[in-house]
Design brief:
By secondary structure, the chain is of the alpha+beta class. The chain is about 35% helix and about 15% strand. It has twelve helices and ten strands. It is globular and about 50 Å long.
Length: about 350
């Protein structure tokens, strides 16, 4: 059963400290990622594993809508849940009782840290997740630079291996991504579905010029990588074991609200003016501050369940994103038929949608 948290569970939220060495910080900035071993205690990993099992065994509307409330790339996963900490105490505990926020702050010039979103992803034992090189830059605020947002990725339950759908990153790929931003190429393509497919093709081509890092990560280990670092599931599952993971996306505060930001998909809280304060900076319970301390008003809204939607609220909310719904359903149908996003049929459907001004 899904274990919601009570008010007293979250009164005192003070993430612990964990100090990195100068070599670790320098390595992260140069390579675009950092691996930290045993950063989560056995107790926190047990809580995380238990919470993940609960969500897998107990379907709920909040998690089910993740397939449609985020990037249309998750349909190949057996179970997903965006922001599980909103509905399950265990995820909330690990998020706020681990030192991951302090570590992330050090990697982003010791700035305050806000939570962009978290996401659990699970696959079946015999399932192979497609190799799909991509970067997460587009979902972060501050589109004109890298370095002020990152992803924390950690396995749940099983060890993550490269030959079992494990996470793979391309070393130093964040640097060439930043070059794309500086010369305008990224902005030229990001405004259309066809352009975004060109990005995916470009990321795929980087395998020829950038060395792969294929880490083995045990439960308790974490890899942190820059918002611009190109990564993917390995596309191999010769071990025939499950992959189950949790991702946390942090960004450095403050970040200016951008009125012209392209709304890629519904969950882009950074594109919603309601999440900007009077000074025009992103804030509020949808993007809560976690480091160096939490903000009581934001946590109160979270504890009261104000961020959760009913079925009717979801229905009305998703009606505002017809293009995204079209793309999501095309991707879901294509992947159920065994087609990848690089398949010619998918290209034809995208082109047809653009001609008809659907996408």
């Amino acid at each position: 059963m899904v274990e919601r948290f009570s008010l007293q569970d979250t009164e005192d939220l003070s993430p612990p400290q964990f100090f990195l060495s100068e070599d670790q910080i320098s390595s992260y900035k140069e390579e675009g990622f950092l691996i930290i071993r045993n950063i989560l205690s056995p107790h926190l990993m047990s809580r995380l594993s238990s919470g993940s099992s609960d969500l897998s065994a107990t379907p709920c509307l909040h998690c089910a809508m993740t397939y449609y409330d985020t990037a249309p790339l998750l349909h190949s996963y057996d179970n997903v849940c965006q922001r599980p900490e909103l509905i399950h105490q265990n995820f909330h505990e690990v998020l706020y009782r681990s030192p991951l926020a302090h570590i992330s702050s050090q990697l982003m010039d010791n700035r305050p840290i806000r939570i962009l979103r978290t996401l659990t992803l699970g696959s079946r034992a015999g399932q192979t997740i497609p190799l799909r090189w991509h970067a997460d830059h587009a979902i972060f605020p501050g589109q004109r630079k890298c370095g002020d947002g990152l992803v924390v990725w950690m396995p749940i339950g099983n060890t993550s291996y490269a030959d079992a759908n494990g996470l793979v990153v391309l070393k130093k790929s964040h640097k060439i991504h930043e070059e794309m931003i500086d010369n305008g190429t990224w902005f030229e393509n990001q405004g259309s579905v066809h352009g975004q497919r060109l990005h995916l093709e470009f990321y795929k081509s980087l395998v020829k010029t950038h060395e792969k890092e294929e880490p083995t990560l045990n439960p308790g280990d974490a890899i942190l990588f820059d918002r611009c670092t190109v990564h993917s599931a390995s596309g191999v599952n010769s071990r025939n074991i499950r992959r189950n993971s949790w991702q946390i996306r942090f960004f450095a505060d403050p970040q200016q609200f951008d009125r012209d930001l392209y709304k890629y998909y519904p969950s882009s809280a950074i594109a919603d003016e309601k999440n900007a304060n009077k000074e025009g900076f992103l804030s509020g319970p949808h993007l809560p501050q976690i480091w160096p301390k939490t903000i009581p008003g934001e946590q109160h809204a979270i504890r009261q369940g104000h961020l959760l939607r009913t079925r009717q609220e979801w229905f009305l909310f998703m009606l505002g994103y017809p293009r995204h719904l079209f793309i999501s359903n095309v991707v879901r149908s294509a992947e159920s038929l065994g087609f990848s996003l690089q398949h010619p049929l998918f290209s034809v459907l995208v082109r047809l949608g653009e001609i008809l001004q659907i996408v």
